[in-house]
Amino acid sequence: MYLKELENLINNVEEDSLKEYIYPAKAKGISPILKILLTNKCKNNCKYCLNNARSNCPRYFLSPSDLSKQFISLYRKNLAKGIFISSGIYKNANFSQEKILETLYILRKNLNYSGYIHAKILPKTDFSLIEKIFDFADRISINLEYPAQKYLSRVSSKELFDDLFKRLKFLSRLNKEKKIKSGITTQFIVGGQKICDREYLNLAYYLYKELKLKRIYYSRFIPQEGTPLENLKEESPLRIKRLYEADFLLRDYGISPSQFLYDKEGNLVLEYDVKEAFALKNKNLFPVDVNKACFELLIKIPGIGKERAKRIINLRKGAKINSFEKLEKIGIPKKVKKWIKF
Fold this sequence. Notes:
By secondary structure, the chain is α/β, with parallel strands linked by helices. It contains 12 helices and 9 strands. The chain has helices at about 5-10, 65-75, 95-110, 125-135, 150-155, 160-180, 195-210, 235-250, 275-280, 295-300, 305-320, 325-330; strands at about 20-25, 35, 80-85, 115-120, 140, 185-190, 215-220, 290, 340. The strands form 2 sheets. The protein has a 7-stranded mixed sheet. Strands 8-9 form a two-stranded parallel sheet.
């Protein structure tokens, strides 16, 4: 986005004019968010990216001062409640990361902005710069893109994955000391090359359990015209849906990747939602006795989440549950019936 376009955006309060640049975040109270690159000039040649060095796309550069002032105008008009700042790697990683840091400093110190900021960490950025970002951001992310170096090497720099992973570990250590408000996140690209879901989820499990990441995002590969991968097939939205279902169970329900149901190629089966597929694979756990099961087992039942599990536990405190009708009265759906006993 050029500065003139950003100014036009601010002057036009029609909601439809914001759709390309402002997106609805799921975090409560910080939606919508302006998601923007300080520059799309980039020296890297990632084959999946429209802004790669060999691309003929129009280039722009926003100064930290200009972007900060224009964002504050959006914020005061209630058109954006937060900002997600990233950048292409222009000149070198430290130059571009310093521009992100400068933007954060202007927003926090000069313009007294106290709202939500998500800052991107760029590959090969000095660790000292990363540490400074912690003083200003609510959320910090660095994108691994793929679950192993061998996959990233096919579309980008041969040594990039190790560099990204090293910095992600550094972010994790810093977060233990400083505890950033909205946590550390990363992103995987799904599609564009043959990588099975099991590989994504094995790494995701490690990232949640060992590095304590807040979220992992799964970006559906959609070929971009003008890139070396423009003729490849776009990835199925259903596969992304299943990965998010599995990710949720990894993160919040104590299920490990080995407990999921995969096809012969190591991908999640698409015909069932992941929790139901988990139940089909782990038949030894079912049917679950709703009068005796602990909270951790109740939440593994398809159709029962944490709130419904709490309702069941509260219900059985009064008397034994001896019919499904009693469960229906507290909002338990009929799909649960096949997975439980009394």
